[in-house]
Amino acid sequence: MSEFYQLTPKDAKGEPYPFTQLEGKVVLIVNVASKCGFTPQYKGLEELNQKYKDKNVQILGFPCNQFGHQEPGTNEEIANFCSLNYGVSFPVLDKIDVNGDKTDPVYKYLKSQKAPQPWIATQKPFGTRWTSPSPKSNPNSTRLPARSYCRNRNVQNASWLDLKEDTSDLSPTSAREKFYQLSPLDNSLSPFSFNQLRNKVILVVNVALYCGFRFQYKRLEALQKKYEHRGFTIVGFPCNQFLFQEPLTNEKIIERCRNKYDVTFPIMNKIHVNGPETDEVYKFLKESKHGLWGTKRVKWNFEKFLIDRDGNVVARYSTFTTPEAISGKIEELLQQKKM
Q1: Domain 3-113 part of CATH 3.40.30.10
Q2: CATH entry, 175-335, from 3.40.30.10, 3.40.980.20, 3.40.50.11060, 3.40.190.290
């Protein structure tokens, strides 16, 4: 018997839920949260459940409060929320840890399995989904054929993307100079010429106050205070394109950033970072530094572009790369002399 079927997590009532009852089924395991920006995926998961439950497909939800404390409820509260808001009928089990010293045995097992290309993971975000082998296609398999990250509230039509930093070759000289020719609008709709940023190391970040990663505001400000006297600055661009997580006006955004996070770095006019209305700054950044597999599209809030003293876009970091993780690269760039 596969080790998978020997696992026995607890259900929402604290009773054993032996995986032996899953033999012969295709299983989709999802770590879930009721206050996450991706919570609407509950609806899509339930639609999958209704569509395939008679074909030996089983979805299992494991609530987890480790990502931005977005699942604070009790098991009973979670079950009521799922049932009342999304009509969830698939099992939502006991709340667990999926990372760290208290990782549940189910997730220890899942994470130990090597998923085949191209879905090898480099991050551990919420919304990770696992599927078990189809017994018909490979009855003896103990490997998990897919671990996938959904960046879309529509589960059935999701775009499966992994996020990691890109550190490919530098932009040509003409592109470097173009950076300083950019002049976006600041939060009061006045031109903010990037020419004033010459000889600085710059971190450009698309931000949102209602995003689960908004805690990064404090960490960004810590970077600003640590390095600004050495010629470093952060420039934040509010964006409402990712699940409408920045609905406020410029004035309200600035007020909340200052009052709640003590932000001192420039917060600009709210813009689009993708699509036909993409701001010129992001057209330049995305053309200069592509993402994983050559993609240009910004995947989520708090992606980061790092620019050196000469206007080169030298690195692109995912949402999951914390500001402090970039400090080593910032130090390196600050020590370099301008060409």
Answers
A1: yes
A2: 3.40.30.10
Q: List C-alpha distances in Å: 312 to 133, 201, 204, 278.
A: 46, 10, 12, 20
Residue environment code for 11-21, b if the CB has 16+ CB neighbours within 10 A, otherwise e: ebeeeebebee
Give 278-334 pLDDT, tens digit per residue: 999 999 999 999 887 678 999 999 999 999 999 999 999 999 999 999 999 999 999
Cα–Cα nearest to 89, from 120, 52, 44, 49: 49
Backbone angles phi, psi at 97, to 5 degrees: -100, 140
Q: Which of 35-44, 51-60, 150-159, 236-245 has the lowest mean pLDDT?
A: 150-159
Instruction: Kindly list the catalytic residues.
Output: 211
In angstroms, the CA 164 to CA 214 distance is 19
Alpha carbon distance 153, 150 (integer Å): 8
Distance of CA 197 to the CA centre of its chain: 29
CA distance 268 to 188: 8
- The residue type of 3 is E
Token duo for residue 77: 């509260």
Q: What is the reported pTM?
A: 0.54
How does pLDDT run across 122-169, given as a tens digit for each residue? 333 344 444 444 444 443 443 444 454 333 334 443 333 333 344 444
The DSSP bridge partners found for residue 10 are: 16
